Structures are given as C-alpha cells and as structure tokens.
Amino acid sequence: MARILVVDDEQGIRHVLAQLFEYEDHEVRSAGGAGEAIQIFGEFHPDVTFMDVKMARMDGLEALTRIREMDPAAVVVMISGHGTIETAVEATRRGAFDFLEKPLDTDRILLVLRNALSQQGLIAENQRLRGEVESRYQIVGRSFALRQVLDRVEKVAPTDARVLVTGENGTGKELVARAVHRLSPRADGPFVEVNCAAIPTELIESELFGHMKGSFTGAIEDRAGKFELAHGGTLFLDEVGDMSLTAQAKVLRALQEGIITRVGGAKPIQVDVRVLSATNKNLEEEIKEGRFREDLYYRLNVIPLHLPPLRERREDIAMLITHFVQQSSRNSALKPRELTQEAMDKLQRMDWPGNVRELRNTVERLLILSSAGVIDGGDVDLLVGGHTRGGGLSSDLLSCHTFAEFKEAAERAFIIQKLRENDWNVSETARILDMPRSNLYKKIERYDLVREG
Q1: pLDDT value at residue 130
Q2: Which of the 8 DSSP states describes residue 185?
Q3: What is the C-alpha to C-alpha distance for residues 298 and 40, in angstroms, rounded to an integer?
C-alpha cells in the first residue's frame, strides 16, 4: 500500500482519482490548491503526488518546485488539461516524474503509478545500500588524535591534491581514503582500490595499466587497468611501498602527464584520476635503501595524513566496541550482547598490535563464542589473547613451568605479533626479522599459527 496525494482545484477530478487509487488499496489524501498541497505533503510524506498544472493563486509548476525543495527525491506526476510541449519540458526540468494530459486514461494513470512506485522502491533500496556501505566504512572515534586526522580530511577532500596515508596495519587507512573520496567532487565517480602488496611483482603493471591480448602468457584478451577503471574518480594505491621500481616509474609518468600505456600496447590513453596512497612503511627509509623513488614520493606525499595506532587513542575503544557489536549483529545476524564494565576495562587496557582490525575481529569472536547473554571479564580472559598495556609479560608466559617452555611461548608470541604488524605478509615479516622465509614458514607450522578473522 502506497501513500498518494492528489492535487487539483476541480473536486470531480480529485474524487475520481482518489476513488481509483483507493480501489487499488492505496492511502489517499487530497488537496484543492497548491498551498494546501505543500502543507499536506510535509505532514503526509506521500510516495507519489499527482498534481494539476493550472490552479488559482499558485500554479502546479511553482508547487512542484517548492515540494522538490522540501524533498529532492519526491515523485511528482503533473496533470494538464492544456498540455503543451513547453509545459511538459518545463515540468521535467523542475523534476517531474511524468506528465499526463486530460482527459485522463485509467490504464495510463495506473501504469504511471506502477512506474513511479517502482522508482520509489529503487530509491529506497539505494538509500538502504548506501547506508550499509557508509556504516561499513564509518570512521568511529572522538579522540583528539582522530579528530585532527578528520579535520585534515575535510580540508583536503574538496581539492584534487594527492594524499599519502601512513600508519600501522589495521589503523583504518582505507577508511580515510574512502572518506576523502566520499567528500570530494569525484564522489559520484568510481573508487578503485589496488593492494600493491597482494599482487605479484610481474603482474602489478598489468593490474595498474592494463594489457593487450598476447602481451604475456595468460593475456587472452585486452584488459583495462585500474587507472582506466578509475577515470573520473579516485585510485587508491594501498601498500604503495611494496610496488616495484619499474611500476613506480610508470606511475610517476601517469601522475605527471595523465597518460598511461597498456602492457604490450603503443597507444597512449588519457586518464583523469585522483591518486590516494597508503603504506605502513617508512618511505624515507625505503628511499635511502634504494627501494622507492624519491621523485614519486614527493608526487604522492602532497598532503600527508598519519593515522595513530589504537593504543594511542584508547578513549575510542569503548565506542568502537559498541559500533562493532551493532555492525556484527546487523550484518552477520549475530545476537547483540552487552559487555560489562569489567570486560570493557580489560579490552581498553590491551595494546592491540593489530589495531582497529584486530579489535573488530575480537568483538566478533566474543559475540560468537561467549555463551552467556552478557560478555564479562571472564569471557575476555578466556577468548582474547593477553597482550596488556605496559609491555609486561602476559599471563600465558608467566604460567610457564620451565625456561624451555617460556622460550617457546615467547618465540610464538613474538612471531605472531610481528606477523600481525605486517598484516601476515610472510615475506615482509621474514625480511624484518632477518630470517630466511623457509624458516619462518616452519615456525608458523610448528606453532600452528593462524591469521585471526
């Protein structure tokens, strides 16, 4: 059942239309003039409005403008006894959904109504999906450190300046990039993400710039790259510090000239893309080691944004927990639960080396595995690893009986923390630990280490 508003200064027309729509089981309100219609519209919130063009005092076109100012998504069908092309064009320009001429045809009216309600359904579904997406990518917190970041996001978003987001793994670098895009003039354009660390070095150029059929083994057809796909929008280069030097050179050219060339191709392609990038590496150190181009760094780092780790904004943890409980309950059909103050205090004291991502996974684990209706401190002790504030030894290490047991437990804890810090990138973790990758794989297998979430 839909809500329909009928606006016409002829009582007979109002009566006929109301009778027709009520017969179709819709709720109908009527108005004899534009002023009354505007007042009813604000109270009734109709799904569809049928309104005459020619009325005394204020005509339907002026009322249409007023209604669309009140609700830009309003669906209004204009009716005219003296329909002209100029009137229909003007009604469409002002946002009318359709235009009907008198005498009215019942079948035509019902067809227009079905189409209008169908559009309303699409609008409502789009709003619902947009709400889900915005909830998924919402940045939660009120700490001073986070507010500083968000203030800078609001300042830089309306520009086309390139932004380099830095911070540890799991701090929300992608969320910041999406916020910049969402608040920018390119918001209606595509947001295309490339995880440079997840793509093999030999394929990164193809991923970014596309390729031509036959340019390498497996290239069975022409394919557009991420730069082309992001045309008119935003390209987000995540973990840009892991990009090969060859790819870096091509990215630099694309930034300088706005031109890319597909792998195996010769035709230059013009692209209009805003580039945002992120990394957990110190790019200045990478430049000194010869692993990152200095000229590219200065091209990407026009506006630097550094995200603080969760341990430096502990006041946001309680709010994040509440947000993740609601999100998991809504999206994963998990039963919503309350956390006792003791449970909250324990979670706030932890160091969270995996940052917000680790906290989100932990909240979901507590919701799934805790048996009682309320999550208490005992559930946290049982289901959450013991990395507490202050760098002291966890209860797991202190419970070891022999020095050999302690060494094994400490090694296991150390390796898993380093893997978390590097987003479980085994190659990068092995490099940082100055350990052969094969040895690290053996230790992962020996200690049965599995990535959380």
Answers
A1: 46
A2: T
A3: 58
pLDDT tens digits, one per residue of 315-346? 899 999 998 888 887 777 777 788 999 999 99
Q: Mean per-residue pLDDT for 416-436? A: 86
Q: What is the CATH number of the domain that holds 367?
A: 1.10.8.60
Residues 299 and 155 in one domain: yes
Residue 121 scores a pLDDT above 80: no
pLDDT band per the 50, 70, 90 thresholds, residue 122: low
Does an H or E element contain 386, and which?
Answer: none
Angle subtended at Cα 363 by Cα 357 and Cα 369, rounded to the nearest 5 degrees:
130
Which pTM was predicted? 0.58
Six-digit token string for 118: 């169908």
The answer to whether the CB of 309 falls within 8 A of the CB of 167 is yes
Tokens for 159, please give them. Answer: 């520009």
CA dist 179 → 139, 193, 205, 446, 448 (Å): 8, 13, 27, 41, 38
Do residues 263 and 151 both lie within one domain?
Answer: yes
Q: By residue range, what is the domain housing residue 391? A: 314-446
CA dihedral over 178, 123, 188, 243, signed as positive or negative:
positive
Residue with tokens 């110190």, as numbered in its chain: 282
The answer for 211, left when phi > 0, alpha when psi is -120 to 50, beta otherwise, is beta
User: Alpha-carbon distance 51 to 243, whole Å?
Assistant: 60
Residue 49, beta-bridge partner list: 5, 76
Condensed to tens digits (0 to 9), the pLDDT of residues 50-80 reads: 999 888 788 888 999 999 888 888 899 999 8
Indicate whether 244 and 358 sit together in one domain.
no
